[in-house]
Amino acid sequence: MTETFVPAKRFAVPGRIAVSNRSAALWQTATLTEIRPETPYASTFRFAVPDWQGHLPGQHLMLRLTAQDGYTAQRHYSIASPPEDTGHIELTLDHVEGGEVSGWFHTEAAPGDEVEVRGPLSGFFAWPGDRPALLIGAGSGVVPLMSMVRHHRARGLSVPLRLLVSARGPEELIYAREFGAETTTVFTRSAPAGVPVGRMTAAHVAALLAEQPDDGWEAYVCGSNAFAEHASRLLLTAGQPVDRIRIERFG
Question: What is the reported pTM?
Fold first, then answer.
């Protein structure tokens, strides 16, 4: 799921959460409490997980479904909620045509259903809130980035954070209701009146890099393989150091 995995014996949200690898390896019961539609094709699923030991924004988890006949299916999903949402986690899932797990969530799941989760996993894509963050995502790639935005707001952090997000159109922009002044949106197929339509370009990235803080940006890119390649090339062309670009890709 991640471009690179750098194991950590211990990671922490400053001042509050420390999670051991042993705790992250244990399966826990998660009870579905709420389903919120985000777009016609994506919804957020909120779970109560009383024994969840916390996570860093940008991390993901393993989810396991078990059928009545004992058949199990496991998937990796990015965590959308911030670590401040104690005892709960949220996942935002696309309804993938023919998808075994996403299909169940979008067509059968209801509050009260139980699944199993294990994590958090991977420290490479995590953002603990200690350095300026330039976030670039497309489609459901915005999910782990939104955990970072929510953490930034929940803590009232002063460290700079910017989000550049691409979607095919306004109706497919996940979390549209939550975006604020930190967010720049790009629409590739349809857009509101007066808003240009097209792919993310060097100009979009250059405008954000021009706001570069003294310590520079730590860039986080998440999306499909094609988008991750495109966005990382734009960053490199604009002068972002390669060792300060973190990539998570899917598909």
Answer: 0.91
Number of neighbours of residue 146 by Cβ within 10 angstroms: 27
Q: Say which residues have a Cβ less than 8 Å from residue 47's Cβ, sequence separation at least 6.
A: 30, 31, 32, 33, 88, 89, 90, 91, 115, 117
How long a stretch of residues is the chain?
Answer: 251
- Weakest mean pLDDT among 13-27, 124-138, 173-187, 224-238: 13-27
State the pLDDT confidence band at 2, using cuts at 50, 70 and 90: very low
- Cβ atoms of 57 and 127 within 8 Å: the answer is yes
Contacts of 175 by beta carbon, 8 Å cutoff, 6+ apart: 38, 92, 142, 146
The residue-averaged pLDDT of 235-244 equals: 96
Report the candidate in 233, 230, 223, 148 with the shortest Cα–Cα distance to residue 183. Answer: 148
Structure confidence by residue, pLDDT tens digits, 13-38: 444 445 567 778 899 999 999 999 99
DSSP H stretches of helix in the chain: 21-24, 100-107, 142-155, 202-209, 225-237
The residue among 235, 52, 51, 20 whose CA lies nearest residue 137 is 235
Q: Read off φ and ψ for residue 169, nearest 5 degrees.
A: -165, 170
End-to-end CA distance of the chain: 9
User: Where does the pLDDT of residue 78 fall: very low under 50, low under 70, confident under 90, or very high at 90 and above?
Assistant: very high
Judge contact between 162 and 145, C-beta under 8 A. no
Instruction: Determine the pLDDT at residue 250.
Output: 86
Whole-angstrom distance, CA of residue 30 vs CA of residue 79: 13
Burial of 206 by CB count in 10 Å (0-12 exposed, 13-18 middle, 19+ buried)?
A: middle
Q: Give the separation between CA 153 and CA 1, rounded to whole angstroms.
A: 26
